[in-house]
Amino acid sequence: MASNGSSHSTDIELFLTTEDIKCIKYSRVSEDDVREVVRTIQDWLKQQPHLPECADTRMLWGIWLLRKMSLERTKQTVDMYYTVRNLIPEFFENRDPVILQKQQAFEHLQFIPMPNMLDDFTQVIIDLYAGTEDHHYDLNQFMKTGIIICELMMRNSRALGFHIVLDLKNYSLGVIKKLTPAFLKKLQVVITKAYPVRIKSIHFVNAPSYVDKLVTLGKMVLNPKLSKRIIVHTSGLDSLHDHISPKYLPLEYGGELGPVQDIWDLWTKDLISKRDWFLEQENFSSDEEKRPGKPLDQSELFGMEGSFKKLSVD
C-alpha cells in the first residue's frame, strides 16, 4: 500500500517475508516507509554516473535500517559498497566459492552466523580459525570468506546488530602478527563504510592470557562505546553465557544449536549454490572516472590518519 505522498512507490515490489515484517515493525517504521526509501535510493542511483543501478530492494532497505533510517548514511554506504570493490581488489576479486572451497578456505576460516536471532533482532556470529598451521591463515581468503557471507546476510538476514564471538583457540603469535595496521585499516573501511555492521558486543573466547593485555592496549585507540563492549573470556564459557544465552550458541560453546560444523556446512552449501551470482557480481563496481568531483583513491580511503574510534556501534 503506497503512502499518499508517493504516487509511484507502488511500483516497488518488496517481497517481504514474515521475519521482514516483524523486523520492520520492531524498527517502528511502516512498509510504506520502506517502499518509499527504496524508491528514493533507486532514483538517486540513476543519477549517479559512477554507480550501477541496484534492483535488490531487500539489500537497500536492510542497509537503511542498519543505518538507523538515515537516508544520507544509506547513500554513503551504497556508494562505498560498490567503490571498495575497485580499491581493495585482493578482497573482492576471484570470490568464486567453488575455488575457495577447493583451496580449503572454508575448512580453515569460518565466519558463521547463527540461525536464530535474539529478541532484539541481533544475531550471534562465530568467527573461528580452524587451521592448525600459521600458513593456513590467509588474510585475503579470510576477508573473501567473511565478505561473501556478509553478502548473503544483507539479502537474507534481518539482523539489526551483531554479537561477534571470536574463538582464539588456534591463534598463535604467528597468526596475530599477520594482522598488520594496513590490513586492519582496510578491514575497518569494509565493515564500517561498505557493509553496515553494527557491533553490539565482541567476545574473545579460548583466549591465551596475553590476549587480555593486548586487548587492553587496543582499547586505547578504539571508540569508547565499542571498548566497553569487548569482553575477554579467559576462564571457560560460563562468563560468555552471562551475556549470550546458550539457546543462541552452538554445542561447542555450551549452546543448544547443535555442532558448529553442521551450521557452517549449511552456509557453505548456500554459498556454492549461489556461485553464478557471485561471479556475476564481479561485473558491478564503481567507475571512478565518472564520479562527480574528485575520484576516490586508496591513499585517501586507507590513509592511516583517523583511527578505529569510528568503528560502528549504536
Q: Overall 3D geometry? A: globular
Mean pLDDT: 88
CATH topology of the largest domain: Phosphatidylinositol Transfer Protein Sec14p
The radius of gyration computed from the alpha-carbon positions, rounded to a whole number of angstroms, is: 20 Å
Report the major sheet: 5 strands, mixed
Domain CRAL-TRIO: 164-261
GO molecular function, one term: phosphatidylinositol bisphosphate binding
InterPro entries: CRAL-TRIO_dom (IPR001251), CRAL-TRIO_dom_sf (IPR036865), CRAL/TRIO_N_dom_sf (IPR036273)
Protein name: CRAL-TRIO domain-containing protein
What does this structure look like?
The protein is an alpha/beta fold and 314 residues long. It has two domains: 9-90 and 280-296; 108-275, Phosphatidylinositol Transfer Protein Sec14p (3-Layer(aba) Sandwich), CATH 3.40.525.10. Helix content is 46%, strand content 11%. It is built from 16 helices and five strands. The protein has helices spanning 18-26, 31-46, 57-66, 71-87, 89-92, 97-102, 105-108, 139-156, 173-176, 181-194, 209-218, 224-227, 238-241, 260-273, 275-281, 298-302; strands spanning 109-117, 122-129, 161-167, 199-205, 230-232. A five-stranded mixed sheet has the order 1-2-3-4-5. The longest helix has 18 residues, at 139-156. The two termini are 31 Å apart. Mean pLDDT is 88; it is low at 1-7 and 304-309.
Key phrases:
314 residues, alpha/beta, Phosphatidylinositol Transfer Protein Sec14p, 5 strands, 46% helix, CRAL-TRIO_dom, CRAL-TRIO domain-containing protein
List the helices and strands and how they pair.
Elements: H1 18-26, H2 31-46, H3 57-66, H4 71-87, H5 89-92, H6 97-102, H7 105-108, E1 109-117, E2 122-129, H8 139-156, E3 161-167, H9 173-176, H10 181-194, E4 199-205, H11 209-218, H12 224-227, E5 230-232, H13 238-241, H14 260-273, H15 275-281, H16 298-302
Parallel strand pairs: 2-3, 3-4, 4-5
Antiparallel strand pairs: 1-2
